[in-house]
Design brief:
The chain is of the alpha/beta class and 332 residues long. The chain has helices at residues 31-38, 58-69, 71-78, 99-111, 127-132, 144-147, 162-173, 193-205, 215-224, 248-261, 314-317, and strands at 12-14, 17-18, 54-55, 82-86, 115-121, 135-136, 139-143, 153-158, 179-184, 232-236, 264-269, 273-279, 282-284, 299-302, 308-311. 31% of the residues lie in helices and 20% in strands.
Length: 332
């Protein structure tokens, strides 16, 4: 599925700059911070309050232009547009990033109309104000927010628990975007999406937010519930050192909520912890047929309700949910 990245839901990753700051529990074991430290002699020099963000090279900034130029060949082979995950090692809407860098990034996005840009942020409340402060290059009186939704920009928010869902999903739905999506990875608790979406539904469907009076989505929400206002949900467990287990019912619940609403869902991975089936004191682990089987004596985790998980590693745990993969994508 992915051409230049191992991430299951995108074809390319592009980092206009590198560096960030932890802002929520999902950031506790940040892989990007660990990577930054590894390449900087042991200290994450671009991470944390006051740390400088590092602009990537001019050569790196040319890569999306090459992907865009190859759009006909890609479409002929795959039957769809290319997806670009922007800022896997940073955050486009980070307060510490120079505004001119963001302006240059959106200039690149406008120059690559055949790419779908996936802008995922942990700072969803910054999106509208930051877009509003950036003028379009050809018209200083026209802000980027006035231009939204751009046809090739998807806006996503990272949500890891119910508290973040209630706080950030209404903010996400307030952003004018071609596609609005959630990344719920690492999922750290059960989440009722309808509870969070209900907080926003009335305002959205009454058109009280700028550019949000979308009659098609509002009609869908009235038929299937407010979760239908979301276009796509990505769900996954945590991997890497210190990873925390994901209860299987948390993932199943989100799958069912999305199915009921007609919202596309992608189950990315279990992470390092694989759910097991208990039979008395014995735990049965069902590994994917085409994958490794993990350690002979894994570490186990038990929840109070009787569910359990074994730490077998990301590859062994796989990404099957109830016996199948869930690789749904919004149709654009």
């Amino acid at each position: 599925m992915a051409e230049n990245t191992k991430i299951e839901w995108t074809d390319h990753t592009f980092n206009p700059w590198e560096g960030c700051q932890k802002v929520d529990p999902g950031c506790d074991h940040c892989y990007a911070e660990t990577r930054n430290a590894r390449y900087a002699g042991g200290q994450a020099i671009n991470w944390g309050p006051g740390a400088p963000r590092r602009l990537t090279s001019a050569g790196n900034w040319k890569k999306p232009l090459a992907w865009n130029a190859n759009h006909e060949a890609f479409f002929a082979e795959h039957g769809r547009r290319q997806r670009v995950f922007c800022a896997s090692l940073a955050d486009v809407f980070d307060n510490a990033v120079n505004t001119s860098w963001r302006i240059d990034l959106f200039g690149l996005i406008l120059k690559t109309p055949h790419l779908d840009w996936l802008l995922l942020t942990k700072r969803i409340g910054n999106v509208n104000p930051m877009l509003d402060e950036m003028a379009h290059g050809n018209d200083p009186d026209l802000s980027l927010l006035d231009m939204m939704p751009l046809p090739n920009v998807w806006i996503g928010a990272t949500v890891v628990n119910q508290e973040e869902a209630d706080r950030d999903i209404p903010k996400l739905l307030a952003v004018p975007a071609k596609v609005r999506f959630l990344s719920m990875e690492p999922l750290l608790g059960p989440v009722n999406l309808e509870q969070a979406c209900d907080l926003a539904e009335a305002q959205v469907c009454k058109g009280t937010w700028r550019d949000m009076a979308d009659p098609i989505k509002c009609a869908a929400a009235l038929r299937r519930g407010s979760v239908a206002l979301l276009d796509w949900v990505i769900v996954g467990g945590e991997s890497g050192p210190g990873s925390r287990p994901m209860h299987p019912d948390w993932a199943r619940s989100l799958r069912d909520q999305c199915q009921d609403a007609g919202t596309d869902i992608l189950f990315k991975q279990w992470g390092d912890w694989m759910p097991g089936e208990k039979d008395g004191d014995t735990v049965k682990l069902t590994f994917p047929i085409d994958g490794p089987h993990g350690p002979a004596n894994p570490e186990f985790y038990d929840w109070p309700d009787g569910a359990c998980a074994a730490r077998v590693g990301k590859k062994a745990a796989g990404r099957l949910l109830d016996g199948r993969t869930w690789d749904e994508f919004p149709q654009t």
